[in-house]
Amino acid sequence: xxxxxxxxxxxxxxxxxxxxxxxxxxxxxxxxxxxxxxxxxxxxxxxxxxxxxxxxxxxxxxxxxxxxxxxxxxxxxxxxxxxxxxxxxxxxxxxxxxxxxxxxxxxxxxxxxxxxxxxxxxxxxxxxxxxxxxxxxxxxxxxxxxxxxxxxxxxxxxxxx
Length: 161
Description:
two-stranded antiparallel sheet; 7 helices; 2 domains; mainly alpha; 434 Repressor (Amino-terminal Domain)
C-alpha cells in the first residue's frame, strides 16, 4: 500500500511525519492521516509536493511499489546499505539520514562508515570555510569601491558648489 511506502520513505529520509510535513509545507495532520490509515492514499496535491521536495524519489515506487525507491543511484545505494546494516545489526540503527552527498548512519557497528563520513564532512566544512573567506574578500572589495564612489561624488559636489 502507498501508506506503507510513505512511512518507509519518511524513515529512509531520516525524518519524522512532522518534519516531512514541514518540508512539504503542509499541515502535520495531512501526513498523520495518511500514515495512521485514516486516509487511504495521499491526494494528488500531496504527491506533487513530495516529488517537488524530493525529486530523487521514484514515482513508480511510491505509487506501485516498483523498485528502486530513489532515482538517484547514490541515494539508493545509501538506502540499501542502511537497510543491510540495520538487518545485520539486529535493528540497532536508530536513524538513517540521506541528504544530497551527506550520509549519516547512527548506530552500532558503523564505525568505518562514520569515519569515512567524518572525512567527507571535514572536506565540506573546509570548502565552506573557503567560500566564507572569499565572501569576506568580495565584501571588503565592495566596501572599498563604495567608499571610492562616495569620495568621488563628494569631490564633484565640492567642485560644483
